[in-house]
Structure formats: C-alpha cells, structure tokens
Amino acid sequence: MRNALRSVGRFVFGRMMPRAAYPVVRGPLKGARFVLGAFAGAGGGATVYFNQLEPEQTAAMAAEIAPGSLVFDVGANAGYYTILASRLAGPDGRVVAFEPLERNLAYLQRHVEMNRAENVTVLASACSDVSGTATFEIGENIAMGRLSDAAPAGASVTVPTVTLDEIAERLGLTPDVIKLDVEGAEMAVLKGAGGIFERAKPTVFLSTHSNELRTECLAWLEARGYAATPLMGGDDPHEFLLKAR
Predict the structure, then answer these.
(1) Regarding beta strands 132-137 and 226-230, do their DSSP bridges make them parallel or antiparallel, or are they unpaired?
(2) d(CA 7, CA 43)
(3) How far apart are CA 56 and CA 231, in angstroms?
(4) What residues does CATH 3.40.50.150 cover in the chain?
(5) pTM attached to this predicted model
(6) Which residue, of 58, 113, 127, 226, has the greatest Cβ tally within 10 A?
(7) What is the rounded average pLDDT of the residues 84-99?
(8) What pLDDT is attached to residue 80?
C-alpha cells in the first residue's frame, strides 16, 4: 500500500503539478526546496522529495560531512548534493560546485538561491586533468552528460575545463570531501587533483561508470592510502566511499 501511494504521489507530482519548487518532506534535506523536473527519474525526479534519490549515498554523506567542512562537488548537476553538503557543512563550511552544462547550471544556481545556500560557490566548468576547453556530450538524459575525447554520438557543446589543483590554489582551499560523479571522466579529474592528494587525504565519494574505470580509479586511490567501501549492495558496485587508512 505504501509503495502504491508513493507511485500515485510521484505521478501527481510529475504529470499534474506545474514545474515549481516543492520541499523535501523527510531525511537530512527535509525542508530544502527543489524544482520539479530538475532531476532525472520517475515523476520528473519526484523521489527527491521523499528522500529516495540515491538514499544510500545521501545517508553516507550525511554521516561524513561535519560542520565546517570544505566540499568540492564535481559534477554537481542540478545541485542535490551541493545543497546537502551546504546544509551539513553549515555557515562555517564551504561548498564549491562544478557544473558545465547550461541547463543543469540554471537549476543549480536556482536551487542555491532558493535555499539561501550562502556557503556555496558555483563554477561553470567541467573538471579534467588539464585546463582549457573540451567537448561535452549532452547525453540521453539530464544526468548523463560527460566529457568526450571521441567524436560525440549526439548533441554536444564546448565547455571550459579546470583542474581541482588549479581551483584549490586559486581559492586557497584544500577540500575535506570530494564528491565525484562525472560519467566517465573520473580518472582525468583525479589526475588533475594529484597535488591535493599529495598534501591532504580528503574523503571521496566516487561514482564510476564502467568496470574498467572502477578498477582504474580504485587502484589510483588505493595506491595513495585509501580504502573503499561500496555504498550499494550487490556484486557489481559502482558507488564508493573512500577514506584514508
């Protein structure tokens, strides 16, 4: 019955309500407001209002980000984790959110403004191993955009790229937490943060998007003293929490 009611609620949110902002009703983001349709998923991403958008990752982040933390949100999309990190870090903390795609950036900035997330800095750039420009493939849905070295199969745009080392130096900041979800560019981002990992051991929330990348990213981090904990069950995890041993 509960699942049926949730399904009805998501249908109502997704099909009958206007594209306006609604509050989250439970979980660590209770009271935060997000625009309906900003996130991928059933009912225009209405799961966000019921603490059902990536609940395992949400719970892990809520347990790891302490007041005063500095967080880099790489691949911020429409800002779900940006707003979560902002709330957890509090007024003494700071969040730097990286998002290159114009459509996502508009939602991200709106969510930052409507939630009065004054500790958030939004950078309209992709992250990579070099600064400059790159081709960004928009992808099949709003959550699947990615940097592409090959000729893109679909729609694409040219976006600016930065390295995390460059941003850390420019802002005079070293992150305590890095959330990394970039649809295939994970290794490039990590290589562009080599200086950060040489001088600090930030907690890493990592999403990988192929078995090869999972192996490569975990090996790179484990060689720098990290241990990985899968955030979702099953025999083929691609979401990890990594902490220094």
Answers:
(1) unpaired
(2) 9
(3) 6
(4) 54-244
(5) 0.87
(6) 127
(7) 99
(8) 98
